[in-house]
Amino acid sequence: MKKNWLLGISLALVLAIVGLCGCTTSGQVNLVTQQEGISVTGKGEVMAVPDIATLRLGIEAQAETVAEAQSQAAEAMSRVMDALIDNGVAENDIQTQYFSIRQVTRWDWEDEEEIVVGYRVTNMVTAKIRDIDKVGTIIDAVAEAGGDLTRVEGISFSVDDPSSYQEEAREEAMADAKAKAEQLAELAGVTLGKPTYISEGIQIPPIIYPREVYVEEAPATPIAPGEMEITLTVQVVYAILD
Q: Can you give the pTM of this predicted structure?
């Protein structure tokens, strides 16, 4: 009796699973809500003049001992920080990004082993420069302060408050989406309704730091921020009236 009872439950479960699968494949029934209407993507692009520069720079010192390397790096970094602040960079706009103490080794072919020849201390920071006209001057000041230990990994530009540019790009994106939807509705011979779904995406240019550059004594550094592109996209679904 007990075996028959268990067999009945198992059979019922199998039938339920088969029935559910059958509905999904043959009846096209699923739990995902299908978008109905005309779906388009609109794009808006606006050129903006950067008003902020971000420098990634720091100090790298190497010596026979950790203490000596760390002392050299600390002294040089202190001078670099003073140079940044003296040239108008706020303390809260300077942030440590990377700090390391590593062994420096070489391979001894005679003894066939790796030997430690010294230690390298690296201290990198990012400095946000809000007076973009002073970027070249600040780079020169930092290079002079840090001397041969100065390392500059790169510079990037951005807009402190991109909201006004994004609003303009958003208008362009929605106009672009509507124009596409109207054309599709005309080609399909239907009447375009109101939007039933809108999703926005903003593309911000990534901060890219080039490979490390060793700064040497040179004439004043020219810096040209140029322009940057702010791109905004919208995904819009329009209803079809008939």
A: 0.64
Do 83 and 167 belong to one domain?
Answer: no
Cα distance between residue 121 and residue 59, in whole Å: 8
Closest by CA to 135, choosing from 156, 153, 110, 151, is 156
Q: 103-133 b/e with 16+ CB inside 10 Å = b?
A: eeeeeeeeeeeeeeebbbbbbbbbbbbeeee
Quick one: 45 and 85 in the same domain? no
Strand partners, 52: 158
Task: Render pLDDT for 137-192 as a digit per residue (tens, 0 to 9).
Answer: 999 999 999 999 999 998 999 898 889 999 999 999 999 999 999 999 999 999 99
Instruction: Please choose, from the candidates 135, 144, 165, the residue with its C-alpha nearest in 3D space to the C-alpha of residue 215.
Output: 144
Beta strands 94-108 and 113-129, pairing class = antiparallel
